[in-house]
């Protein structure tokens, strides 16, 4: 038994419609939805990874700027320390120099004073000796004792003259 | 030599409702359904996020191709609801057309099959038109641009599903008819050619249609493979384009 070559059989139409609906359902349930799900999941994953990468980059940049800042700070501090040390050293050296100069001046003054004192002493000694000698000479010359005290003024005058001559 | 071209064979009848005939078309249709279902289930199983298998690449390619086809022809993702229909139409049509390669009778060589599909498409076009313009607007559309043209508009509306069904059916049927003719003709030619051989050898060889090996494969390249793909593609193309047009105001 055959159907017509060109004709529409109602039951075949109904079966075909059922098959079409079933094919649609099976495609949707077993292929389309799982694939859509996995594709959207993969998209989410890729986006998440991109966001993560951007975040990591921002973090790295922040760390870099922080590091640069701290480096600049450290350099500044070092510069300050060096400057301060230099300043201290300069001040110290000047101080030492002043001190040395003062000391030297003092020493010189003392030495001059000493020299003057010694000279005075020597002059006095010589004065005394000359006085004594003069008295002796005079006593010998006049052959009488001359009171030293009486003639002290005379002697002094003489010595002054000697001092001026010497 | 007699050649008989028949419609689908009635394999048996279910004795309810005055007898439901189960034809070749129906049985092969179930077979096609089973093949597509198995493919869908197999392809859609064990999908992974990374390290895609070749199978998953194919599955994703199929889905993506159907999605792009529907979106490009209908205009955007708002028509995504039609994706299963277009996939079902294309896959069923293609497998049905190619099933003739195995010697089975194509379900698409039966006008009932295409008529069912075209009826579905016609209903969807009408539904889309009513959805877009309202029922009044839909009816008014028949009187455009002038009321005089109303009969022609109705005619062209009905012509859409009929032409879709007949185009597909005609192509596949012609392949079937020409295939049958070529087999028959080659059998005759084979008998005549090898009958020329003398004696017992000629008698023996003329009984075997030797020319039927190989030569029909060349015609089948066009009628089964090319035409099979083309008709499935054209049917889906028209479906999406008609529904897409119906959605435009």
The biggest sheet of chain B amounts to: 2 strands, antiparallel
Number of domains of chain A: 1
What ranges of chain A have pLDDT less than 50 throughout 5 or more consecutive residues?
Answer: none
Total E-strand runs of chain A: 0
User: How many DSSP helices of chain A?
Assistant: 2
Our Rg estimate of chain A from Cα atoms comes to 64 Å
**How would you sum up the global shape of chain A?**
rod-shaped
Radius of gyration of chain B: 23 Å
* Global morphology of chain B: globular
Oligomer: heterodimer
Distance between the termini of chain B: 58 Å
* Element string of chain B (H = helix, E = strand): EEHHHHHHH
Low-confidence stretches of chain B: none
Main beta-sheet annotation of chain A: none
Proportion in helices of chain A: over 70%
Task: List the total number of helices of chain B.
Answer: 7
Strand content of chain A: under 5%
Mean pLDDT of chain B: 87
Description:
The complex is a heterodimer of chains A (166) and B (249). Chain A contains 2 helices and no strands. With 166 residues, chain A is an all-alpha fold. Chain A has one domain (49-165). With 249 residues, chain B is mainly α. Helix content of chain B is 69%, strand content 4%. Chain B contains 7 helices and 2 strands, in the order E-E-H-H-H-H-H-H-H. Chain B has helices at 24-43, 54-74, 83-98, 111-141, 150-194, 199-205, 215-246; strands at 10-14, 20-23. In chain B, strands 1-2 form a two-stranded antiparallel ribbon. In chain B, a hairpin with a 5-residue loop joins strand 1 (10-14) and strand 2. Chain B is globular, with a radius of gyration of 23 Å. The relative contact order of chain B is 0.13.
């Amino acid at each position: 038994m055959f159907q017509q070559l060109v004709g529409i059989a109602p039951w075949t139409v109904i079966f075909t419609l059922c098959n079409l609906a079933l094919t649609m359902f099976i495609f949707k349930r077993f292929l389309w939805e799982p694939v859509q799900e996995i594709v959207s999941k993969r998209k989410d994953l890729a986006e998440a990874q991109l966001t993560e990468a951007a975040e990591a980059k921002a973090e790295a940049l922040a760390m870099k700027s922080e590091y640069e800042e701290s480096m600049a700070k450290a350099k500044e501090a070092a510069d300050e320390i060096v400057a301060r040390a230099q300043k201290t050293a300069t001040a110290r050296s000047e101080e030492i120099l002043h001190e040395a100069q003062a000391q030297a001046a003092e020493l010189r003054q003392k030495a001059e004073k000493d020299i003057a004192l010694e000279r005075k002493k020597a002059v006095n000694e010589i004065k005394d000796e000359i006085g004594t000698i003069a008295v002796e000479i005079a006593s010998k010359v006049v052959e009488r004792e001359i009171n030293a005290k009486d003639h002290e003024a005379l002697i002094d005058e003489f010595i002054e003259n000697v001092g001026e001559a010497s | 030599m007699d050649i008989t071209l028949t419609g689908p064979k009635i394999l048996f009848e279910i004795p309810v409702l005055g007898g439901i005939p189960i034809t070749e078309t129906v049985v092969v249709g179930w077979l096609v359904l089973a093949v597509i279902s198995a493919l869908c289930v197999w392809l859609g199983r064990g999908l992974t996020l990374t390290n895609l298998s070749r199978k998953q690449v194919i599955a994703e390619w199929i889905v993506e191709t159907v999605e792009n086809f529907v979106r490009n022809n209908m205009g955007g993702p708002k028509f995504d609801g039609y994706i299963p229909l277009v996939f079902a139409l294309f896959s069923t049509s293609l497998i049905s057309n190619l099933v003739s390669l195995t010697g089975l009778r194509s379900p698409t060589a039966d006008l009932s099959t295409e008529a069912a599909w075209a009826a579905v498409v016609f209903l969807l076009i009408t539904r889309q038109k009513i959805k877009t313009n309202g029922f009044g607007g839909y009816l008014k559309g028949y009187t455009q641009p002038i009321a005089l043209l109303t009969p022609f508009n109705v005619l062209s509306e009905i012509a859409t599903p009929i032409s879709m069904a007949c185009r597909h059916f005609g192509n596949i049927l012609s392949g079937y008819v020409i295939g049958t003719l070529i087999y028959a003709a080659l059998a005759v030619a084979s008998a005549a050619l090898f009958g020329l051989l003398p004696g017992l050898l000629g008698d023996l060889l003329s009984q075997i249609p030797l020319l039927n090996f190989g030569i029909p494969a060349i015609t089948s390249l066009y009628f089964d493979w090319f035409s099979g793909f083309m008709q499935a593609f054209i049917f889906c193309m028209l479906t999406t384009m008609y529904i897409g047009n119906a959605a435009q105001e």
